[in-house]
Amino acid sequence: MADTAGGASRDEELASNLAAMSALAVLMAPLGAGGTPLVVSGPHLRGASAADVERIQRFRDAQYRERLSYMLSPEQLQIDWRLQLDERSAHFGASWGERLVGSLRITPAPFEFHALAGSLEEQAPRFRGYAEFSRLVVDPDARSAYVTPRLLLAACTWAMQEGYVGIIGLCRRASRTVFERYGLTAASEEQHSVPLRGPQPYTLMMGTWPQLIAASTRLTQRLNRLQSKEASEAYAPLAEVEQT
After folding, report:
1. How far apart are CA 239 and CA 202, in angstroms?
2. Which of 22, 120, 183, 208 would bridge 166 by S-S if both were Cys, CB 3.0 to 4.6 A apart?
3. Distance (Å, rounded) from C-alpha 168 to C-alpha 149?
């Protein structure tokens, strides 16, 4: 009887969270109105939609070659291969017409960040039930204040439906305030060294669905107010930065 009640409670919580995500999607819909419509696609899985995954990989690698070459170092590629990260992940893309302008990856355990920072190797049990977000990339020529939230909305909705309790990801200190706007918080105040990615410190960020929904709703309401005032310059502090 207790198990049944618990299952019913979880189902009700999931239904409530999904309804809140649907309401958030409606709230986000006007963002960017008047320009080329942004279309977010996914989840793209290697087995079911290999061509879409490969297109996202080509986009991502092209962006990294131009700006973040350490993401394509032999050491990083070895980690990708050993953990089969792209093969096990759900991929999401954001497009303007035929042009891919953003991507994001959601991966189940074992997580990439365990292999990147020695200080995180023993953290796995703490994040049981979470999915890792990574490879958040937005073309600099397409950056605005709404590509990232649309990608996160699609990815988190899928992860929620799959039974995950939240998301977790490693990001540069410069990106921390951006992800805090979406409801992510630092898993601890410890700064992590990632030798493969240079001297900048990294923070492990985590968020549960209620946190992400509440914060993203507030942010979207703010963006809608700014857009209604045609205050495009006000978007600048909210524009995307690279996670990696």
Report:
1. 20
2. 208
3. 16
Give how far Cα 84 sits from Cα of 21, 81, 88, 124, 225, Å. Answer: 30, 5, 6, 17, 42
- Are the C-beta atoms of 109 and 134 separated by less than 8 Å? no
Give the burial string for 175-203 (b: 16+ CB within 10 Å, else e): bbebbebbbbeebeeeebebeebeeeebb
In one letter, which amino acid is 98? E
d(CA 157, CA 160): 5
Tens digit of pLDDT at every position of the chain (244 positions) = 344 456 668 889 999 999 999 999 998 888 776 677 889 999 999 888 899 999 999 999 999 999 899 999 999 999 999 999 999 999 999 998 889 999 999 999 999 998 998 888 777 788 999 999 999 999 988 777 678 889 999 999 999 999 999 999 999 887 888 889 899 999 988 888 898 888 889 999 999 999 999 999 998 888 888 776 655 554 444 555 556 6
Residues 6+ apart with CB under 8 A from 145: 31, 223, 226, 235, 238, 239, 240
